[in-house]
Write a structure and sequence with these properties.
The structure is a single chain. Helices cover 39% and strands 17% of the residues. The chain is elongated and about 60 Å long. The protein has a nine-stranded mixed β-sheet, sandwiched between helices. The protein has 271 residues and is α+β, with helices and mostly antiparallel strands. It contains eleven helices and nine strands. It folds into two domains: 1-115, Class II aldolase/adducin N-terminal domain (L-fuculose-1-phosphate Aldolase); 116-271, Class II aldolase/adducin N-terminal domain (L-fuculose-1-phosphate Aldolase, 3-Layer(aba) Sandwich). The chain binds 1,3-dihydroxyacetonephosphate and zinc ion. 1,3-dihydroxyacetonephosphate (13P) binds at residues 29-32, 72, 74-75, 114-116, 139, 186.
Length: 271
């Protein structure tokens, strides 16, 4: 059996949480990540028949039973993941009944997966239905994106359009736009269901006055999506109170999207 501490998926989780914490996106226990793993790869590091304990899910995840995820723990600080992965992360398999998670590694101090696991698993189900290669769901509280929530209409067409205007490459990076949910109570199945519904259409979903969700095939893709939104939101917040002299026009966005060959939300432009 190989040493789990050097498993690429554990390294990915340690590195990305460290970077996100340093960027100020994950104060205290803010944020959570789930990463769908390949059973054969996990089997090189763990005895897949050794279940440490089972943890109730609180909703039905039969659709993805048997799937294995590495997930940040609830109440755990991203700041501490790098130094102590075994307490702050866990590897769980969705049970055959779809109602429990079988702990295979981690949450060593008796902890459990993030309180946002419903939103994560429901989002995984949605993304897998439209992109079988989706692996990562990431939630965080990026500063400028959150600031923008207080001064910009929470309308997904208008919000996406403003972000697209802020950096030339935005429409190329997230041509599918950004879904937006109003403020909702977090940690619930309802916000999970609403997020998952948006995830059928978007890889990015803003939780009004709370944070953002991103989904992608790799850690890099998912992080890059959120990072690009955050950069655009930063430019917006640095300029929103100043007279706008220049802008990227909609016809230029079309030019960009067509040159880079991306399928974009044409209905989010004002053509
Ligand atoms: P958890 O500590 O349960 O992951 O919650 C953090 C968070 O960001 C809630 O939205
Ligand atoms: Zn949050």
């Amino acid at each position: 059996m190989k040493d789990i501490m050097i498993a690429p998926f554990v390294c990915d989780m340690r590195n990305i949480t460290e970077v996100m914490y340093r960027l100020g996106w994950d104060e205290r226990n803010g944020g959570n990540i789930s990463y769908l793993l390949d059973e054969n790869v996990v089997g090189e590091y763990l005895d897949l028949s050794a279940v440490i304990r089972t943890i109730p899910l609180g909703f039905d995840a039969t659709e993805i039973s048997g799937k294995i995820f590495i997930v940040t723990g609830t109440g755990k600080y991203f700041r501490n993941v790098y130094a102590d992965p075994e307490n702050n992360l866990g590897i769980v398999r969705i049970g055959a009944d779809g109602k429990t998670a079988e702990l295979l590694w981690g949450y060593k101090d008796g902890g459990k997966f993030t309180s946002e696991f419903p939103a994560h698993l429901m989002s995984h189900m949605s993304r897998l239905s439209v992109d079988p290669e989706n692996r990562v769901v990431m939630h965080c509280h990026p500063t400028y994106t959150l600031a923008m929530n207080y001064v910009h209409e929470l309308d997904e067409k208008k919000f996406t359009h403003t972000l697209w205007e802020m950096c030339t490459e935005c429409i190329v990076v997230f041509p599918d736009g950004v879904g937006v949910l109003p403020w909702m109570l977090c940690g619930t199945n309802s916000i999970g269901e609403a997020t998952a519904e948006k995830m059928k259409e978007f890889r990015l979903v803003v939780w009004g006055m709370h944070g953002i969700y991103g989904a992608g095939k790799t850690m890099d893709e998912t992080f890059g999506l959120i990072e690009t939104v955050e950069k655009a939101a930063q430019i917006y917040m640095l300029t929103a109170h100043l007279p706008r002299i220049n802008t990227i026009r909609d016809d230029q966005m079309v030019e960009l999207a067509e040159f880079f060959g991306v399928k974009y939300r044409r209905d989010f432009l004002n053509l």
